[in-house]
Amino acid sequence: MKFQNLQSKWARFERHFIRFTWGGAWAAVLPKNSRTNLTLFFFDGLFAAASDKIMLTYLTVYLLALGATSQQIGLLSSLSNLAAALLLLPAAMLVERTGERKRTTLWASGGSRLMILLMAFIPMILVPTKGLIWVILGIALLREALNNFAYPGWVALTGDIIPMEGRGRYFGTRNFIMSISGIVTALVIGNAITRIGSPLGYQLAFYVAALLGVISMSFFSRIKDPAKEDGTAKTEHSTLRQIAQSLKGQKQFILFCFFTGVWNFALNIAGPFFNVYMVTSLHMTAATIGLTTVVNTVATMLIQRRTGAISDRWGNRTVALISLFLIPFIPLIWGLWVQTTWQVLLVESFSGMFWGAYNLVSFNILLSQTPPDRRARFSAIYQIVVTLSLAGGAALGSFLIPTIAFKGVAVISAIGRWIAAILFLILVREMAPSATALEEPEGQIDNPLEEPIKQ
Predict the structure, then answer these.
(1) What is the 3-state secondary structure (H, E, C) of 181-196?
(2) For the chain, which residues make up each domain, given as ranges?
(3) What is residue 69's DSSP assignment?
(4) Is the dihedral angle over the CA atoms 209, 210, 215, 217 positive or is it negative?
(5) How does the average pLDDT of the chain come out, rounded?
């Protein structure tokens, strides 16, 4: 009798959990394949978030442990974003011409995980030298390039997996569980690295990251491409000239891209050097850096739960403006005040709130600025502007930091961010989203480009 009760309770738990992976009971009316896709994509995100959190939190620290300099870290950031700019459109054109959205994503993602293994394995068998550091930096750059190549196919397939009527609820649930996964991973891995020591602790962590990435891919590989299943898959041959010509008459989008370029350029003048500063100047351990990431993530989670309702009342542009004028205080305080761990944690809690609000509304602003029938193409153009400007900012920061140190690049970054905020105030107008825009997921989704925590 007790066994039967236990079976009944387990079956009830299983039903509730499966519905949780759908984002609620709304998906119960969907076909079985669609419901299975939702569950598989949920677990893909769960393990991908854990894998990505290890790389985003500890890659810079690992490179420093191997002997990389601040300038080399900045150069890696610059070249990674330049690689993204060069690969995004060709990758999108390849997906359009072949229709192989899932296969393209899996091949590129698999290559990225292989690069993680190489970064961990090669220094274990070779004596660290200046030449070896450049090899590891090259592998890290190739990993980023592969992630960028996976992006267009991943986005295209994601849009077909999640039905319009439940995207907000589904991504709200998926994003929440991904945040929890990232928090737990950052804490556990950070403490493990501190106990094991450097660089072995980082190398073992990278093996774990690769394994988690492979588990994520195993779930993603079982997803059924709806277009292939129902025979509606289409191919399109677009040239770069045709893509460029589609920008004619899109004044608001071009102005938004101009603001975006200035904003991201200013961000990355200091962006690559926050972790460097924590390690070299504040002498923080991997466990403490992991805790910093957790504080930032928790603050983001808390603020985003309220930002959606506020933006509905005030408008996306108003919330964005408030965030844009507050965010520059973060690098300014970092450069002029932060000297101890408790100060880092305090500043990062505010950073998580400011960036959480901005990231949530900026996605909706982008949707309102892009033509519905060319959204994938215009999103790629927008992302190219982002990556090129990030590359330029990182290059300038790498050039300046030997002369003016972290404090100098932090202050310059803050000033640049305020200039960009003024440009947003002048140039960017609130535009009502079209009906097509409402088909996009609410909130953020995991991004294979793996943007680090914004500061």
Answers:
(1) HHHHHHHHHHHHHHHH
(2) 33-224, 245-445
(3) -
(4) positive
(5) 84
Tokens standing for residue 417: 């961010």
**Which H or E run includes 356?**
helix 341-369
CA distance 65 to 59: 10
* Burial of 197: CB neighbours in 10 Å, binned 0-12, 13-18, 19+: exposed
pLDDT digits (tens, 9 = 90+) for 368-403: 777 655 666 777 788 889 889 998 999 999 999 999
Pick the CATH number of 245-445 from 3.40.50.1970, 3.40.50.360, 3.40.190.10, 1.20.1250.20: 1.20.1250.20
CA distance 262 to 316: 20
What are the distances in angstroms from CA 341 to CA 185, 282, 337? 20, 8, 12
Contacts of 396 (CB under 8 A, 6+ apart): 265, 269
- Name the residue type at position 225: D
Give per-residue pLDDT as tens, 63-115: 999 989 888 998 898 888 888 888 888 888 888 788 888 999 999 999 999 99
33-224 against 245-445: fold identical: yes
Reported as a single tens digit per residue, the pLDDT across 148-169 is 888 878 877 887 787 767 766 7
312 or 49: whose pLDDT is higher?
49
pTM given for the model: 0.78
Handedness of CA 12, 16, 18, 24 (dihedral sign): positive
Angle between helices 130-161 and 32-66 (to 10 degrees): 160
The angle subtended at Cα 57 by Cα 56 and Cα 61, nearest 5°, is 110
Pick from 84, 50, 339: nearest CA to 205: 50
CA distances (Å), 306 to each of 113, 174, 329, 354, in order? 36, 17, 22, 12
The tokens of 263 are what? 């904003």
Q: Hey, which of 163-167, 303-307, 334-338 has the most confident mean pLDDT? A: 334-338
8 Å CB contact between 158 and 445: yes
Domain 33-224 adopts which CATH fold? Growth Hormone; Chain: A; (1.20.1250)
Rounded to the nearest 10 degrees, what angle do helices 286-314 and 167-196 cross at? 160
Asked if the model's pLDDT at residue 453 lies above 60, the reply is no
